[in-house]
Write a sequence for this structure.
C-alpha cells in the first residue's frame, strides 16, 4: 500500500492558506474534524464531493473511501482516473505538480488499498506521473499485462521501475524476454596491459652455478 504519508502530504498541499492575520477559514480541516468524521456523515459527504470540481474535496472523499472500506465506490474512483488520463490538465510529461495531481494521489491510494482492479490501459497511462502506483495497479490486474509491462520495461530510465516490471514479467516470461534483459546489461572489465615489446625491462641473466 502506498504510504499514508503521501496522502497526508497531498491533503496538506490542497489545504487553503490562512488569512493575512493568521485567521483560519471556517472550512479548516481542524475545525471541521474531517479526518475523524463519523463514517455515516463521511458517506453522505463522499456522495456529494466525489463529482465536484473542488480538488480538495475530492481528496477528502477518497480518504474516507479508503478509511471506511467503501468498496462500492471503486467504479467511481476508476471513472475519476479515466477522466484524469483524458484531461488536458494531465500533462504526464511535465514535472509540475498540480492540485489535480495531489487529489488523484489520494484516489490512487484508495484504489490500491481496496485492491481494486483498474483497467490496464488506465493504469499504464498513469505511469508518466505516478510510476509506482501504475506498477502496483498493473500487478493487481486480472487482465493480461504483458504488453504494458514490456513497454514500461523498454522505455523506462529508472532502474527500480525496470526491475519491478521485469520481476512482474518473470512470473510468465514472454517471447524474447531473456534477450530484453541481456540487452540492458553492460559488462565492463579492466585488463592489465602486458607489454612484450623491445622496451620491456628485463631482469639480467645470472650465470649458471658451477
Amino acid at each position: 500500500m502506498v504510504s499514508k504519508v503521501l496522502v497526508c502530504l497531498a491533503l496538506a498541499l490542497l489545504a487553503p492558506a490562512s488569512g493575512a492575520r493568521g485567521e483560519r477559514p471556517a472550512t479548516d480541516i481542524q475545525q471541521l474534524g474531517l479526518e475523524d468524521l463519523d463514517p455515516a456523515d463521511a458517506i453522505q459527504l463522499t456522495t456529494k464531493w466525489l463529482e465536484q470540481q473542488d480538488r480538495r474535496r475530492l481528496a477528502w472523499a477518497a480518504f474516507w473511501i479508503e478509511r471506511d472500506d467503501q468498496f462500492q465506490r471503486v467504479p467511481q474512483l476508476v471513472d475519476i482516473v479515466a477522466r484524469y488520463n483524458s484531461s488536458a490538465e494531465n500533462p504526464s510529461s511535465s514535472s509540475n505538480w498540480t492540485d489535480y495531481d495531489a487529489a488523484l494521489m489520494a484516489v490512487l491510494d484508495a484504489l490500491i488499498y481496496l485492491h481494486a482492479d483498474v483497467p490496464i490501459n488506465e493504469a499504464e497511462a498513469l505511469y508518466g506521473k505516478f510510476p509506482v502506483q501504475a506498477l502496483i495497479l498493473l500487478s493487481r490486474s486480472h487482465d493480461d499485462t504483458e504488453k504494458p509491462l514490456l513497454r514500461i520495461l523498454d522505455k523506462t530510465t529508472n532502474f527500480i521501475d525496470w526491475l519491478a516490471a521485469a520481476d512482474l514479467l518473470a512470473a510468465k516470461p514472454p517471447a524474447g524476454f531473456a534477450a530484453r534483459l541481456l540487452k540492458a546489461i553492460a559488462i565492463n572489465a579492466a585488463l592489465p596491459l602486458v607489454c612484450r615489446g623491445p622496451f620491456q625491462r628485463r631482469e639480467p641473466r645470472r650465470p649458471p652455478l658451477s
DSSP finds eleven helices and no strands in the chain. The longest helix spans residues 99-113.
